[in-house]
Amino acid sequence: MTEAILTSARAAVAAAPPTGDTAYERYCRELAESLAEHWPAVLEANAEDVAHAEQRGLPPVLLDRLRLTDAHLGRLERLTETVLSELGEVTARDAGVPVGDWGVRLRSPKPLGVVFMVYEARPTVTVEGALLPVAVGNAVLLRGGKEIARTNEALAAVVHKALQAAGLPADLVTVLDDPDRAQLRALLKRPDAIDVLVPRGSPSLIDYCRGASSIPVIASGGGVNHVYVHSSADLDLAAEVALDSKLPEPTACNTAELILVDAEAATGFVAALLRAAERDQRQVTVRLDPRVPRPHTDTDTGADTDTDTGTGAGRPWRIAELQEHDLGREFLDATIGVYPVAGLDEALAHIRRHGSGHTEGVLATDSDVTREFTRRADAAAIVVNGSLRLHDGPTLGLGSEISISTGRMHVRGPVTLGSLITHSWVVEAHGTLRSSVPAHHS
Length: 442
Description:
By secondary structure, this protein is α/β, with parallel strands linked by helices. Helices cover 39% and strands 19% of the residues.
């Protein structure tokens, strides 16, 4: 079975038109139409997956990941439009550069080949995976978690209808439906047949894929991200950045887990954070390092706070203690930690020890501090005086993305359409022989 899947995918790449062909533009349009037409069936299948997950006792955060709504359809339709608008520039053959007085060199875009995506319980990733790699000529194998098996079956039908309507080989997209890990292990051992591996999900999933395979990987390393608040920072802005970096999408890979704040500013920062949460009734748990003083009174009423077990009277925030095991982990809910540091050097040392190389931020009005932080911190993105959630391909004007990579080879940061192709050097030699070209010595 595994051999047949791989053979079919490789044959589909060979049979597909070259990268940049108009068939891929048709595919984007057809996929949007097919999604809209069959969305009720997709939602019905998804409701079955959600109900089954509820029966199994899956936590609310996971249920939210796998649940689809009409809002998701709108976002996916906009994604197909965006990809369509980007294809021309991404897949264009360049104009060429003269080489000496004898020829011209240029780059011709080519697909990576067969892309294997492994992910968990986000059915929107199925559509993203069937869209971005395929739009530039790749074949893709999609393996989502068993929690979305029925949804994926419905989405597979949607995708294959679009491929057929666009005149593309059906096996450019294979939605794997075997929940057995034996198939996953078998595919991970096939660097001869799979060109690139794209795991998306928890650090444990990514680490498993890295360890079990020698296929080149484009992967995030998890989202243990920090914001360093220097003593010169505007604390009200720092509070807003902290909340915006966490609460809208608590489980996203570009959210903040820990605020590293200069010790002398820690009390003021916490007060600003709680005020900001109260102002808009934003529910948040703030885990405070034992060295950070607990807030004892409500800043407006003077009432005692409940600092250990709840939010208190009408308060949206809850105070808890930051434990040693909280350092270097993703909370995956509306929780953010506050940890005092003795300055920039200690903040950077903490990030080097506990960060995942995804997104790091600094808040300071002292330009020397922000310059030094960006020079010494090492992550796929470093945000100065803003939300970590700005690290996103479309938001940064880099284009549609399928993931964010923390790797150092091939691509780092948003994995856009341009990251899903390679190139051939085309050399227009005009009859030139190597023996007639002067030797170059390195």
